[in-house]
Give the backbone structure.
Amino acid sequence: MTQVNVLPDMPDAPADFLAGQAALPMQGADRLTLLDDPQEWAAFSLPEQDSSGCWSSSVVFEGMHCAACAITLEDALRAVPGVASVQISSASHRARVVWSPEQTRPSEWMQSVERFGYKAIPANDAHAHERRRQEARRMVWRLSVAAMCMMQVMMYATPAYLSQPGEISAESMHLLRWASWVLSLPVVFFSCAPFFASAWRDLRERQVSMDLPVALGMVVTFVVSSLGTFEPNGPFGAEVYFDSLTMFVFFLLLGRWLELRLRDRTAGALEAVLNRLPDSVRKRQPNGTWALISIRRLAVGDVIEVLPGEAFAGDGRVLSGQTQVDEALLTGESLPLTRQAGDRVIAGSHNLSGTLEVQIEQVGASTRYAQIVALMENASVSKPAMALLVDRWAKPFLVAVLLASLGSAIYWWPTDPARALMVAVAVLIVTCPCALSLATPAAMLATAGALARSGVLVRRLEALQNLASIDTVIFDKTGTLTRDALQVVRTHTRSGVRPEQALAWASSLARHSLHPVSRALWSEARQQAEAVGELPALEALLAQKVSEQAGQGVCGLLCSNGGAAVSLRLGSAAFCQAPVFNGHHLQVSLADDSGWLATFELAEEVRSEAAGVVQALKEMGLTLKILSGDGQAAVTQVAQSVGIADAQGGCNPQDKLQALKVWQAQGHKVAMVGDGLNDGPVLAGADVSFALGQALPLAQSKADFVLMGGQLGVLVSTVLRSRHTLRVVKQNLVWAAFYNAACVPLALMGLLPAWAAGLGMALSSLLVVLNALRLAQGLSPVPALQSNTSQTSPT
């Protein structure tokens, strides 16, 4: 049996609090003060890439219900000195807060929202899920109390609706009113408590949210009905509305509970990815035993034991054992993958079958998993243009609701004071823009979750809206339409230069680049050196002062045996001022101070799915083009293989960007698909952009979508899904507008009772979320790709 020791965690108590190890309950300032320790910031924050010194924190807010809540929170956070920017999503309840450690601390800006009745929690807080479960249980209790009391009150109200005048005595009717009043007390003081608390907070802080008109409607209904119960002969004694009160409280709570459940489902894939790391790991000690430590203490070089069913805590290499791993949520690969000694594993993936010993190579923010988390958190708080428009009008609309309700009460008061107040209540409830505020973000988040399960990361939700309207798709060639794996098939050298020497010099520069061509040269040089036993000498051949020019090549200094530095260039023929040889293979040249040294011809393999993707996109009415920095002959060869007629070679990044701007100036909406390594300008300039490749530095990518598995096939499904998403968003907006246009006049005319207004409000929000939930299903296979999966086209 494996021996496991548990190391004491007292010196690392704050870290254990965030990692879920602490069991002591902490509230208020004590809980937040722990987050002020700089060692804790990495658990929920990342340093900004610019030179500002700011940190970007991901937090979740408890107590949010609507777009007006998000606006209130954003205003409160921006008022804190040191907070540079804030983005809050009313659909996901997540936020991205950029702050300066020189001016503020996490506890300060988190406490700034607590006076408004909200609570900020680090997005990775291990206790957040348990708190959500507790809140859900409290909501179920409130819903159950409202349901039971509603049924009893409806039973007592039935005689008043069904009996003829004189069939029931006045004393009996008065007794039924008193019974209804008693049964309404638990509803008002228990089930309605969240609405009243939120409304009181709004009044105290002079803010407005969607709970304010709802709470006012509840209070007015209860007060009018109570006055009618206490004074049957008074101005409000003609009728009581306890049945309406209990019914619309029940409907509102039911709608909010279902909305919560459905929101968790639509964002389920996002949450599944964001919370995959274990809380603790078993680390091998110098004496060979295993000790249980917090994941926060894990360091590069540590050896850990990973049991079946556990997630890998960091990127690493398997030392011993064999297993199957699940990388579906990180790479889009749906089938389990075999991993054994010598293979690499990635943080966040799951060990399915065997026990492994893994040596950690990357931890924390440097892992691919951390980069994925950062991208997904940014997407979950981004706001599409439609959602921004709704947010901008949320508070003015609520103010208009309150004024309309007051106006309706004034209009009806001379006729019947009791009815005037109930008409005002119906207007307050039916016009709350819950459905309108959920229409866009609910659909976008549902799609982002489905795409994440298929290995497609969405950096900006607005990109889904833009993708639905594109008419042109531009492809890069190398690493996009062709596979990353290139093979050196021929080498041309100048007189006096041996091919193996030229390859070794080229590899000294290539090893500093992530471009597929550079990786191919470095791999070929390693294979040749290993075959003749000169691998150590090759690895010792290090170039200095290496710099990469996007779309051109790599340059640097190489010290020879005599110590004299040789200036080398590796890249395109124009970059190296090299000749171009006949043939259709990809050519990359090497030059020194004296001029051209060598040219390497590399064979490419067109992706098996590329022709099917091209055909499917054509059938969708899209215009396809290729812009590549490679020679025209090689580009034409690949274009003919996949079926694209318009292909341009010899383009540097500036040429690509210029061509893109020309097409955009002609009114085209353009999507760019590249490998993300040297296409930064054109990826950023396109209306929508995709980046492929597992070797892609995710944190540096300019793309809107990242295809984590490097499979081109999901591009078609993503475009189809974006169009479906836009249709659903439009359906939601049309429904929300129709609902308000139909129900508001009815409420103003006094034809809509309060319970029907509550039912309409709840059902409208529920319908919007249910419609968005249809988008949460996984991507379906594209038939056009099936017939091309076995087709390969080597160039």
Q: What stands out?
A: Residues 67 and 391 are 6 Å apart (CA to CA).
